Amino acid sequence: MGQTVSAQGSANQAMVDKYRNNFLREVEANVEEGDWVKMCMQCGVCSGSCPLGNAWEHPPQELFMMIRAGQREEVLRSESMWMCTSCYNCIVRCPRGLPITHIMHGLANYANRLGLAPKMSPTRRFAKIFWDNISTTGRVNETKLSIRLYFMDGFVKGLKTAFAMRKVGLGMLLTRRLNPFALFAPGGIKNKRQLQQILKRAYEIEDQRKGFQ
Amino acid sequence: MMTEMVASNETILVIGGGISGMTAALEAAECGKEVILIEKNPSLGGRISQLYKYFPKLCRPSCGQEINLRRIKANRRLRVITMAEIVKLSGSAGDYAATIHIHPRYVNENCTACGACADAVVSEIRDPHNYGMSPVKAAYLPNNMAYPQRYVLDPSIIGTEEAENARAACPVDAIDLDQKAQTIHIRCGAVIFATGWRPYDASRIEPYGYDRYPDVVTSAELERMMDPFGPTGGKLVRPSNGEDARNIAFIQCAGSRDRNHLPHCSRICCMASLKQSTYLSEQFGEDADASATIYYIDIRTIDRFEDFEQKVRQDRKVRFVKSKVASIAQDPESGKPVCRGVDTHGYDRYENVHDLVVLAVGMEPGLDLGSILDTGHGVALDTGGFIELDDANDGVFGAGCATNPLDVNRSVQSATAAALRAIQVVNRVSAS
Fold it and tell me: What is the C-alpha R_g of chain B?
């Protein structure tokens, strides 16, 4: 997630050139669990079992069909796979055992990597805030995470959200589910620099393996 | 009596008295071989005796069954043992020993099926012939076409006053309360397993609520409902309240083609539902305000069956929805089942209320062979537990649905093939 916009743009063009007209192969090679996509038999149990089904413009079974139909832009720019909340109902019920949850996250991640994911998608932004939060110190700082989420859309909106959620926030403070001092104490794991190095190396390996520039 | 049965290593033992077992036994016996046919139920006939109509000709199974029973009665080389289960099989081709457990019927050959014992008994059991959908007296005739045409006393009343009343009521002294379970050993040269299938336990498909909603039934149960002597007297009704079931949903692949249930395609369910969709016209009339909705992944009708499918597709009462229903709920007001899912034609979300939902349940092998076989060679089974044709099986053969999910036509072909294979084994015995 730490790529610059221009690098993302060229990565996208490289993939377009490499897999010309064969989006299924591109997905198989680059998306986590992507080689399962061809196993879908279009029964629709995943879509019908999804508790957030109504929020999806293209339910999973349709995304799989669109991948096979080569609708690259429509799929990668779609907000649908960002709707997945990882309840795993689809995986449990899929008659063919497709790891649908993982494929959805894989598609979202790949679209993000190529710079095609919808910029203002709230779940994409949440994922980014979460990742920045956890990868900085190696631990989730829930206080900072909540505050960044509240103020995601500006200072005034953040204040409004905080006011609306004050009862929940106060309750969490009183029951010690939220530590106000975590705002100032950095916390986290012992060797943060090592974690950064590991992550940096992991990015390099992935970029190399998948042929990103 | 049974224990005195004479058998040799030229005898063919057929296990299971459904359409496949009857066919295999008859074909072998009519070729001059000694055959013993054992059946675990009190009557021959198996699943076909529970069917209302056959596809694709929509004729009644009782017709062919009548012919088979005539052939059985006419054949001196074929001996039938009912209420008998195989518990062990050892040996090898040309020299098998089968251990058979025979359950007591408490009714002997004198029985004329007059029904006086049933009149004398008050207790009822769930009728196994109707998949438990209706009660039957604890002294009962398994079904109207039962062979042998003889009553059975349910073990639950043995030792009670009711059993004594039944004995006292019998005008021909047919009730024998002293009958005991017995174990016999049969020698034989070849064995045919025609142990058939059982409907997949629909309650295991949790989102369909088969065990929660009375108006969700299996395809096997719908066949019983159409039978004039069945649990609803031949009426298509909602089991919950007895109202007409004019809006029926069929859910294909209920338990089949699903890694959480049966991995295989059960083959017959598409045709079974297409057949059952014609029951609406039969029940309510050609132009009636009635509808069948078939929810499917893909309709698998091979060969000439495709003609049948095309005919059904022309029926305006029948609607096809390409979608596997994700879950069934209950409409809070009417109590009717609601099918929920997303269809694959337009990727539209639907919630359809129906009077009755029929689960086209898959086929499981009727017998778990693993616990029975004590032969040196074992038997090759596929991943679903069906018997494969394999040289290593030696003198053991599968017939009908013990080998594959098959329709009646193909079961009979499979059974005839198994008979021929078994005949070749015992021919080698007599030649040596």
Answer: 23
The helix (H) or strand (E) run that includes residue B192 is strand B190-193
Question: Does residue A71 sit at the B interface (CB-CB below 8 Å)?
Answer: no
In CATH, what number does B2-103+181-196+366-431 get? 3.50.50.60
Half-sphere exposure of B167 (CA within 13 A, CB side): 15
Residues of chain B with pLDDT under 50: 1-4
Cβ-based contacts of B258 with chain A (< 8 Å):
95
Kindly determine whether residue A95 and residue B260, on different chains, have CB atoms separated by under 8 Å. yes
Contacts of A54 in chain B (CB under 8 A): 349
Judged by CB atoms closer than 8 Å, whether chains meet at B257 and A95 is answered as yes
Question: Which superfamily does CATH assign the domain made up of B199-363 to?
Answer: FAD/NAD(P)-binding domain (3.50.50.60)
Say if A207 falls within a structural domain: no
- Do B2-103+181-196+366-431 and B199-363 fold alike per CATH? yes
Please state the ipTM of this predicted complex.
Answer: 0.87
Put simply, the answer to whether A48 touches B349 (Cβ < 8 Å) is: yes
Q: Which of A48, A54, A62 is nearest residue B341 as measured by Cβ atoms?
A: A48
Tell me the average confidence (pLDDT) per consecutive run of 10 residues in chain A, 213 residues long.
58 87 93 96 96 93 96 96 95 97 96 93 92 92 89 91 91 88 84 94 90 72
Task: In whole angstroms, give the CA distance from residue B23 to residue B299.
Answer: 29
Question: Which of B257, B261, B327 is the closest to A48 by Cβ?
Answer: B327
Q: Do B342 and A47 touch (CB under 8 A)?
A: yes
* Domain with A148 in it: 122-200
A60 CB within 8 Å of a chain B CB: no
By three-state DSSP, how is residue B224 classified? helix
In the prediction, which pLDDT does B8 show? Answer: 86
Say if residues B326 and A53 touch (Cβ distance below 8 Å).
Answer: no
Question: What local confidence, expressed as pLDDT, does residue A1 receive?
Answer: 44
CATH number at residue A99: 1.10.1060
Structure confidence at residue A8 (pLDDT): 65
- φ, ψ dihedrals at B51, nearest 5°: -90, 145
Last residue of a domain, one of A119, A145, A175: A119
Residue B368 is predicted with a pLDDT of: 85
Euclidean distance between CA atoms B358 and B276, whole angstroms? 10
Contacts of A19 (CB under 8 A, 6+ apart): A25, A26, A29
Q: Which residues of A touch B349 (CB under 8 A)?
A: 47-48, 53-54
pLDDT at residue B2 in the model? 45
Return the residue of B nearest to A92 by Cα. Answer: B260
Name the nearest CA neighbour of A94 among A151, A29, A39, A140: A39
Give the torsion through C-alpha atoms of B304, B305, B310, B313, to 10 deg: 170
Residue from A42, A43, A83 to probe the interface with B (highest B Cβ count within 10 Å)? A43
Select from A58, A61, A94 the Cβ nearest to the Cβ of B344: A61
pLDDT at A142: 87
Question: What's the pLDDT at B359?
Answer: 98
- What are the residue boundaries of the structural domains of chain B, listed by start? 2-103+181-196+366-431, 116-169, 199-363
Query: Would an 8 Å CB–CB cutoff place B327 in contact with chain A?
Result: yes
Nearest to A48 among B258, B260, B326 (CB): B326
Interface contact A45, partner B, CB < 8 A: yes
